[in-house]
Amino acid sequence: MSEAKKAILEKIRNALGEVPRQERPEDITVPRHYRQQGNRAAGEVVALFAGRVGEYKATVQRVNANALAGVIAESCRREGVEKLVVPDGFPGEWLPGDEDDNVRLLHDKPGEPLSHRALDDSDGVITTCALGVAQTGTIILDAGAGQGRRVLTLLPDYHLCIVKEEQIVELVSEGFTHFEQAVREEGPPITFISGPSATSDIELSRVEGVHGPRRLEVLIVQE
Amino acid sequence: MQTPTFEESAKAYLSDTQLRRNIGHATHTIRDKRQTVVDEMPDWEVLREAGSSLKNRIMRHLDEYLLQLEESVRQAGGQVHWARDAGEANRIIVDLVKEQQVEEVVKVKSITTDEIKLNRALAEEGVRALETDLAELIVQLAGDEPSHILVPAIHKNRAEIRELFRKKLNQGELSDRPEDLAEAARLYLRKKFLSAKVGISGANFAVADTGTVAVVESEGNGRMCTTLPETLITVMGIEKLIPTWRDFEVFMQLLPRSSTAERMNPYNSFWTGVTEGDGPQEFHLVLLDNGRTNVLADEVGRQTLNCIRCSACLNVCPVYERTGGHAYHSVYPGPIGAILTPQLRGLEDEGAASLPYASTLCGACYEVCPVKINIPDVLVHLRGKIVDRKKRAGGLNAKSDPEYIGMRLMARAFKSRSRYERAQKMARVGQKFFVKDGTISKLPGELSGWTAMRDLKPIPNQTFREWWGDRDE
């Protein structure tokens, strides 16, 4: 044990002289009667999610599954995306085809990762997500299939995220509960995204877009 | 080390009207926004209670939780270092950085690294630490000090920032629109991010149970620094622990609404050790004491360690609003700084010992605190300690101190009813010389300090008891 570690632990134990020896951490009760489970109907939750994401100045569209590929191609056209980053495991049938759209796909694969330069040089990235939280309009990524490494959703200036309706929960609490087991077992990196990057550092006036993607678009898919 | 007292410094800042306008505008804006997002939470009070008890649980068993954290971070592929003070922490970090043979590191905004003056320690070894948070960058370029926990450059307005960027970032043509200023910073920092080999961050939270570390931010610079470099070094105070992953459901509701007044801030990064093929492949966690165990030892002061650095208390404080953060001479300004700084630095430092008096005890800070730190209580407790210290240090001298004598006399008067009533009668006669038009606006000698800034109501001609007595007869 390092000198410093020993000294710090000893100081802590001396500082806590009045804590009874037999006291266990769980002996200090924590009130848990805050909202843990949402009570809205599924349709309401989706509408709430769409509204809240929109309030962050992200673009939100609700899309039917069979129209998804067309909407994606259209979004890429509108945003001027010519080089689109695609994470490993993203469903191929949703992607714009090479022939009819002017989009080049940059696939990020294990063993063949895209360089930071290539990502910085791209125009956008398309991903799925792990979960959506309606209460706060948050998208959660856990680096799973279709989402890829963290850097993929960081360097491109435009992030197009596909959220399935059944992936949306109502409350923040439900969001954290969802990942409890995964964090304990595999510990994947988890990223919460609530709107495009922003700053309020200058006179507290909010500016969308600093270092992360400046434009966020969310497509909510109904199967 | 001695810092100037709050009273001395506040005077100068109070006469800076530009500064007062900048801070007043900013704090009022965010205050109202916070209230709106807090009001939409029906369970806010339960969440505060939960946050407070979770922190209480951590503090009472800090040694066990720290060992648990160390073990979980190791299991997840990270390395843990322990530092007793700033010097030790800086040594550890400098050595880690030098091992990577780099001349520049990118930093996420971290008050803890400001507290230990890490940038200076790195500079002494030839390493440039680049602040990447917009406000921190502004402060760094200006050679200035942060003045707010959340918005370190709150004291600067857009015109001042434009001038700074024009000079330091070689931006000839630049408007003062916040959008353009942010764009200038984006371009400047993007190159730096892409070539960075080492990132340094603080931590908002670390989970004892899983070893997960969290950084909460808005701009994306935090994600850049914790994702792009090959090596990540995180410095955290030993009090930043939470027991389990699930407890985020409490703190990640309390923090954004209290801090930036948003339902959720744009980006939260949670990482658990290292992940193969994704992000830094080397992760170091430096656990810092630097006076925190002294705070822990004071049963009343201990709750100060519950702080999650949201800065809500700054934004509602009538004192902070007028003086700004620099008057506190600490990286922790405002009400929380007024209790944290003197406990971290010790009351020997006259400047630190003046901070518990930088308050009207109005209690607004306690009301907004998301983890229910009773700041007024701790302020009064610290004032008591300061007076005791003075008494001990002063000996005979203190006994002839007019304030001390006055307080002793008051104490005697309040001890018995007959003495108290006699004192009232004497005061009623004595005050006649000073009452003008129903108020006392000028007292002589030692008492003149009281009336220099405010009027005093005279003691009424009849007390309630006297009135009651007359009425019966």
From TrEMBL, chain A:
Family annotation (InterPro entries): FTHF_cligase-like_sf, LUD_dom, NagB/RpiA_transferase-like
Classification via SUPFAM superfamilies: NagB/RpiA/CoA transferase-like (SSF100950)
Pfam family, one: LUD_dom
UniProt domain LUD: residue ranges: 116-221
The protein, known as: L-lactate dehydrogenase complex protein LldG
Organism, scientific name: Fodinibius roseus
Lineage, top ranks: Bacteria, Pseudomonadati, Balneolota, Balneolia, Balneolales
Automatic annotation (TrEMBL), chain B:
Residues forming coiled coils: none
Keywords linked to the UniProt accession: 4Fe-4S, Electron transport, Iron, Iron-sulfur, Metal-binding, Repeat, Transport
Keyword Methyltransferase found: no
PANTHER family according to UniProt: LACTATE UTILIZATION PROTEIN B
Domain spans labelled 4Fe-4S ferredoxin-type: 305-373
Boundaries of every LUD domain copy: 68-287
Stored NCBIfam families: LutB/LldF family L-lactate oxidation iron-sulfur protein (TIGR00273)
Pfam families in the cross-refs: Fer4_8, LUD_dom
InterPro entries: 4Fe4S_Fe-S-bd, FTHF_cligase-like_sf, Helical_ferredxn, LUD_dom, LutB/LldF, NagB/RpiA_transferase-like
UniProt keyword Electron transport present: yes
GO biological process entries: lactate metabolic process
Top-level division of the source organism's lineage: Bacteria
Organism: Fodinibius roseus
Organism ancestry: Bacteria, Pseudomonadati, Balneolota, Balneolia, Balneolales
The name this protein goes by in its record: L-lactate dehydrogenase complex protein LldF
Gene Ontology molecular-function annotations: 4 iron, 4 sulfur cluster binding
